Amino acid sequence: MFRMDLEHLSMAVWIVVWGAAGCACCALNCSPEKNSAPSTPPAVPETARAVELAADITPEKAKGLLDENKGYVYLDVRTVAEFQAVHVPGSWNIPVMTLDANTGERELNAQFLSIVEKNLKKDARVIVGCRSGARSAKARDMMREAGFLHVTNMLGGLLGSGAEHPGWTSKGLPMESGDGGARSYRSLAAEAGP
């Protein structure tokens, strides 16, 4: 049986992509200086090699992964108030954005990564979600850059982002409310320490 590891797969993808770019360049009679493929493949960070999940998954796929009981964690990156009102059952809450006390505007939670790193191992399987998928996509990217190996974003989040990306609630999937107890932001931040 043919088996390819992720490093070799990355190289194969690079060859196909740059090969196609080279062929397109020749067909269009482009200047080779501007459109030639680099002599070596771009470096692939270790984190990208190990990512086993797609960058984005649907709410149904997220529910299926959570139901398999294979150690997936649903990380809700909405504000504490949003989380307390309604969330995916069993989810953890670590907001990626907080509200500025003076302006009321959202700003990046400076403690987000440190709290995540203190509570989750780098090889944890994490599904990140928010209200519509935008904040969770940011959190996913931050976590991958920090070396988390298995992080995916739930498209559409909890409430959806239009007809193209319906959310968890529009699919009729189960919900709960409350602070989450040991999975609340307060508890997880306290566990992380100063």
Helix-strand sequence: HHHEHEHEEEHEHEH
Task: List the domain count as a whole number.
Answer: 2
CATH C-level of the largest domain: Alpha Beta
CATH topology of the largest domain: Oxidized Rhodanese, domain 1
C-alpha termini separation: 51 Å
Under the CATH scheme, the architecture of the largest domain is 3-Layer(aba) Sandwich
How many helices? The count is 8
Major sheet: order of its strands?
Answer: 1-7-6-2-3
The whole-angstrom Rg is 20 Å
Beta-strand percentage? Answer: 5-15%
Q: List the uncertain runs.
A: 1-51
Shape: globular
Biggest sheet details: 5 strands, parallel
Q: What is the average per-residue confidence, as pLDDT, rounded to a whole number?
A: 79
Extended strand count: 7
Fraction of residues in H or I helices? 25-40%
Short précis:
With 194 residues, the chain is α/β, with parallel strands linked by helices. The chain is 39% helix and 13% strand. Helix 7 links the parallel strand 6 and strand 7.
Question: Could you characterize what this model shows?
Answer:
The chain is of the alpha/beta class and 194 residues long. The protein has 2 domains: 6-44, no CATH class; 47-192, Oxidized Rhodanese, domain 1. 39% of the residues lie in helices and 13% in strands. It has 8 helices and 7 strands; from the N terminus they run H-H-H-E-H-E-H-E-E-E-H-E-H-E-H. The protein has a 5-stranded parallel sheet with strand order 1-7-6-2-3. Strand 2, helix 5 (80-85) and strand 3 form a beta-alpha-beta unit. The longest helix is centred in the N-terminal third of the chain and has 23 residues, at 6-28. It is globular and about 35 Å long. The model is unreliable at 1-51 (pLDDT under 50).
